[in-house]
Structure formats: C-alpha cells, structure tokens
Amino acid sequence: MKDNTNIREIGVCPRCGKTYTEPPALSRTDNETLICPDCGTREALESLGVSAEEQDKILETIHRSLCSPR
Questions:
Q1: Distance between CA 14 and CA 36 in Å, rounded?
Q2: What are the tens digits of pLDDT across the range 45-61?
Q3: What b/e sequence results for 2-31 when a residue is b if at least 16 CB atoms lie within 10 Å of its CB, and e otherwise?
Q4: CA distance 16 to 48
Q5: What pLDDT is attached to residue 55?
C-alpha cells in the first residue's frame, strides 16, 4: 500500500496567474472558481473595504509567520 501523504498538487491561480501548492480558496466572485490562498485572502479583505496597500501588509505578515521557525 502506497503512502500518498507527501504528494502535493500544484495549481495555477486564474486570478493572479501564480502557482500554489496549498489548499485553494473558493472565489467570492462566483462561488465556483478555485483560486490561490493569497487571492482568497485578498477577496475577503476587499469585501471588508481593506485597501490594496493594507492587504499587502497583511499578506506579508501571514507569509512571515508561516515561514518562521516555531
């Protein structure tokens, strides 16, 4: 029996064009399209009226906290 726990699928985000390996987000624009986690976060923040500049800062903080050793 094969162990497939280390297999990751690579997706390409139709919103930004970047590749990603994390679980996708469901776009709020049509509730059908799978997008990268960053674009999913951006769509959520946009719905709250957060500016693009602040979105960049928030995503930078998320990436920094996910990559830091614990």
A1: 8
A2: 999 999 999 999 999 99
A3: eeeeeeeeebebebeeeebeeebbebeeee
A4: 20
A5: 98
Whole-angstrom CA distances from 27 to 64, 65, 66 are 24, 24, 22
Tell me the per-residue pLDDT of 19-47, one tens digit each, with 9 for 90 and over.
Answer: 999 999 999 999 999 999 999 999 999 99
For the chain, the distance separating the N- and C-terminal CA atoms, rounded to the nearest angstrom, is: 33
Contact (CB, 8 A) for 47 and 28:
yes
Q: How many CB atoms lie within 10 A of CB 68?
A: 7
Structural domain boundaries of the chain?
A: 11-67
Q: Three-state SS for 11?
A: strand
Nearest to 48 by CA among 23, 33, 28: 28
